Amino acid sequence: MIRLVFILFLFVAQMGAAQSIDADLLQIKERMDGVKQFSATITLNLEVPFINMPTKSAKVNYAQGKKMMFSSSDFVMLPKRGLDFSLSEIFKYPFITVDRGFETRNGKSLKVINVIPTDKRSELALATLYMDVKAKRMVESEINTRKEGSYTLFMQYASVKDILPSYVEATFAIERLKIPLNFMGKDTKIDRKKMRSMETKTGKIKMQITDYDIMYK
Amino acid sequence: MKSLLLAESMKIAKQSKTYYALGAIFLIELLILITAYYQGSTILDLLLDNLKQSFYFEGDLLNGNLIMYIVLNSLWFNVPLILMIVTSGVLTDEYKDGTLQTVMLQAVKKWKFMLAKYVIAVCFTLFVIIFMMISTCVLAYSLFGKGDLVVYLNTLNFFETYDAFHRICLAFASGAIAMVFYCTVSITLAVVIKEAAKTWIASALFLVITNLLLKVDFGLKVVNDYFFPKLIDTWQQLFYYETDWPHILSNNMVLIAYSIALMILGIVVFHKKDIG
Predict the structure, then answer these.
(1) Which of A36, A125, B123, B272 would you label with B139, given CA atoms 20 to 30 Å apart?
(2) What's in the keyword line of the UniProt record (chain A) (predicted)?
């Protein structure tokens, strides 16, 4: 009987530990929350198989609790996902984290955790986060959403102290274009075989972020 | 030769057909502008629907450059048809009115007379394209402003404002060469057919067949590269992201050579024919 109570105690303790939020993630979130607002210049390079676009630049303005604002004199396409530096998307609804240990990426040891939302309203299905616990910042993340597919983010920082990245690479799945025939150029060839093979493609957007103007709390 | 050119330019300037042609082209432009104003955003939304799932768009793609590109697309059928009707008239009207015999009774060399007709028809064609470009430019940029151009040619190609305008100007120049080709075809057909209505039908048929043959794969590289229906889309090649400039230049040169050859053919046929 005592043995059974002991096993039950261990199990409950394990469950409790598993369902708490990772302390390192909370530290990163706390550090990110220190940023009250910032503005920066983003240089975008889009790599999608069926899109040809020159390098573009845009101004980004962020204020805590508000939607990120972009402005550009050119036409720019900005990813809907991948610019949520404040982790507000993850922290919007309750979740649990599961520790997956450490992995070495580019010579750096990164802590890996899974984020599992516990609220049905969350758009997030599962997120895998790779954290640099020494520098207290996010390095990589693989996000699976309920409705908008999956995407991965890779971040680089200009210096050890920086909290905001100087380079972000977002990889995402993108459906092929469904162009009505009357939009096609006269000599546009329709290769059905090729079109079928292009049903879903992987796109990548590379963002260089410079000229940060950060206001801390 | 100078007096012949002057006489021909007077004829083309005085005939009502010329102004009907200019009016028709202007009307096409207006219709494109009105359609773009009311439906342009919906059409673009439809075109970029998939991308909107993954991206925020900042900036407007419905702008003067897109309108210019849409107007350029009237070079496929509408504009050449109007031009062929008007330019063939420079000869068929002379046959119909019987003025050709009167002119030939003067000390006018037949080849010079015919050459003057070709030269004036070519000048008129170039004038129409310049008119079309300037009028569209003024209307499109004043109503819709500047912006990046998006074109779908196998891939979705985006061009920045300055680059887009540069390409549009070159496309009008390249399109003008294609229009000159159609104009020489219509006059050459007029030399052979003589009757206005039959020449118009033959010109329209030529236009339709040329457009159909553009998509046909002839199997032989030389034919695919240098047969005239394969050259009339040269202006559109300026909107490929990886632009093959030498190929565009050579296509235009070959099209000019075709036009000159047709002129020579028309002059030779006219010279050998009896006037009557």
Answers:
(1) B123
(2) Signal
The SS3 call for residue A175 is: strand
Q: Which of B148, B158, B214 lies nearest to residue A186, judging by beta carbons?
A: B214
Q: What is the mean pLDDT of residues B254-265?
A: 94
Q: Determine contact, residues A43/A55, Cβ cutoff 8 Å.
A: yes
Q: List, for residues B6-21, the tens digit of each pLDDT value.
A: 877 878 888 888 888 8
CATH topology of domain A20-173+205-216: outer membrane lipoprotein receptor (LolB), chain A (2.50.20)
- Model confidence pLDDT, tens digit, residues B56-70: 888 888 888 988 888
Distance in Å, alpha carbon of B133 to nearest chain A alpha carbon: 20
Cα pseudo-dihedral A53, A56, A60, A65, rounded to 10 = 10
Highest mean pLDDT among A13-17, B162-166, B272-276: B162-166
pTM: predicted TM-score of the whole model, two decimal places: 0.81
- Those of residues 128-187 in A touching chain B at CB distance below 8 A are 148, 172, 174-180, 183-187
Could you tell me the pLDDT band of residue A16, with boundaries at 50, 70 and 90? very low
Query: What are the extents of the domains in chain A?
Result: 20-173+205-216
- End-to-end Cα, chain A, rounded Å: 55
Closest to A22 (Cα-Cα) out of A115, A86, A104: A115
Q: Do B51 and A172 touch (CB under 8 A)?
A: no
**Least confident range of B54-58, B139-143, B183-187:** B54-58
**A81 chain-B contacts, CB cut-off 8 A:** 54
d(CA B19, CA A197): 52
Supply the mean pLDDT for chain B: 87
**Which residue numbers of B have CB closer than 8 Å to A's CBs?**
43, 46-47, 49-51, 53-61, 76, 147-148, 150-161, 163, 211, 214-215, 233, 236, 239, 241
